[in-house]
Write a structure and sequence with these properties.
single chain, mainly alpha, Glycerol uptake facilitator protein, 10 helices, MIP, glycerol channel activity, water channel activity, MIP/Aquaporin
Length: 251
């Protein structure tokens, strides 16, 4: 809701109610609050690529994968519907009732990502791949207690800042989906709500890239972290009697 509504305000406000920075801030704030809301219950994956990666690594049972994906899908789809209702009058005024994916009054990009006109399919795929690599690396570093992990209670804020940083540095080419759960459900919503099947054919059938590139980028991010950081971490010191020294109890 925070992310999509910030895009809506920039597009429909014709630049008078925010710029690229405000979109990145909106998504960063949304991620931060989402982690606070669901972190203690489910780990707050919020991202199908991260959930699938945890299943592959054995950190999450495969039987839980459908529940996570359904929750992510419903959350993202409902967010798109909410923003559509919130800004319906502005959408109608901006487009004169003609909801299009491309053109001078295109509005489909409010809900899902589309590549810039100059970006090739390969270039867009690599952008999404690398942005997701940086996302996973950042998340793993923030939660790495064997290294220089974040202070307890700051992980959600730092993850939101991480998403903000990715948007600031890698958002121009593709709008940085970095998350199949963030991109496909709103795309389905727009197909139903009046934009039609053009949402799947635009950008040389772009729709499949935000699904596959983040999956591969997530796995690559974990591999890089394992090879260059985790394997070299020092083990966490165990509390208690170390090296045979007596344990002194204090009141």
């Amino acid at each position: 809701v925070f992310g999509l509504s910030s895009v809506a305000q920039v597009v429909l406000g014709r630049g008078d109610f925010g710029q690229h920075l405000s979109i990145n801030l909106g998504f960063g704030i949304g991620v931060t609050l989402g982690i606070h809301a669901a972190g203690g219950i489910s780990g707050a994956h919020l991202n199908a690529a991260i959930t699938l990666t945890h299943c592959i690594l054995g950190n999450l049972p495969w039987r839980k994968l459908p529940a996570y994906l359904i929750g992510q899908f419903l959350g993202s789809f409902t967010a798109a519907a909410t923003v559509f209702g919130l800004y319906y009058d502005a959408l109608y005024d901006y487009t004169k009732g003609n909801f299009t994916v491309t053109g001078p009054t295109a509005t489909a990009s409010i809900f899902s990502t589309y590549p810039a006109p100059y970006v090739s399919l390969l270039g867009g795929f690599f952008t999404e791949f690398m942005a997701t690599v940086m996302l996973l690396l950042g998340i793993l570093i923030i939660h790495d207690e064997k290294n220089n992990g974040a202070l307890k209670g700051t992980q959600a804020l730092l993850t939101g800042i991480l998403v903000l940083g990715i948007g600031l540095g890698m958002g121009m080419n593709t709008g940085y989906a970095i998350n199949p759960s963030r991109d496909l459900p709103p795309r389905l919503f727009t197909a139903i709500a009046g934009w039609g099947m053009d949402v799947f054919t635009a950008g040389h059938h772009w729709w499949w890239v935000p699904l596959t590139a983040p999956m591969l980028g997530s796995l690559a991010g974990v591999l890089i972290h394992k090879l260059f950081i985790d394997f070299h971490n020092q083990p966490v010191p165990e509390s208690g009697n170390e090296k045979g020294q007596p344990v002194v109890e204090t009141s």
